[in-house]
Amino acid sequence: MRILIVDDDVHNRNLLAAVLNDFGDCMFASDGAEAIAAYQQAISEGVPYNLITLDIEMPNMDGHEALAAIRKHEKDRNIASEDGIVVIMISACDDDENLEKSFKEACTAYILKPVDPESLISTMKRMGILASDKGQFDPGFI
Description:
The longest helix has 14 residues, at 63-76. The model is unreliable at 134-142 (pLDDT under 50). A five-stranded parallel beta sheet has the order 2-1-3-4-5, sandwiched between helices. It has one domain: 3-Layer(aba) Sandwich (Rossmann fold). It has helices at residues 10-20, 32-44, 63-76, 96-104, 117-126, and strands at residues 2-6, 25-29, 51-55, 86-91, 109-112. Helices cover 40% and strands 18% of the residues. By secondary structure, the chain is α/β, with parallel strands linked by helices. Helix 2 packs parallel to helix 3 (63-76).
């Protein structure tokens, strides 16, 4: 599995990688603009990401803008919403406005910081990214 971790804080990126490295290859972006560039490059190279974790509050381009750009790119390529990339918004923003906006922009899930590893893994299992037994990756997802 290929995972793009997007957060402007290197500590947060490293914490997520510590959890997600067991499930796939993690790459990093420090803002939304870098995330869009990495997303598009992965598609052009024929090795798209299976999962993007996306912080909301970042410089240059925030997570909402990046998610909207990803979903627009999918729509332009006629990718059905249920076939789009799995995007987990990860944020310290514990308010209804950010939550509603994230789901309106079609995030797959929303997790609050600080991220609880078990909650993240459980969320990934519910979304079908991980098999339910022993936290192993389900290759049938691709």
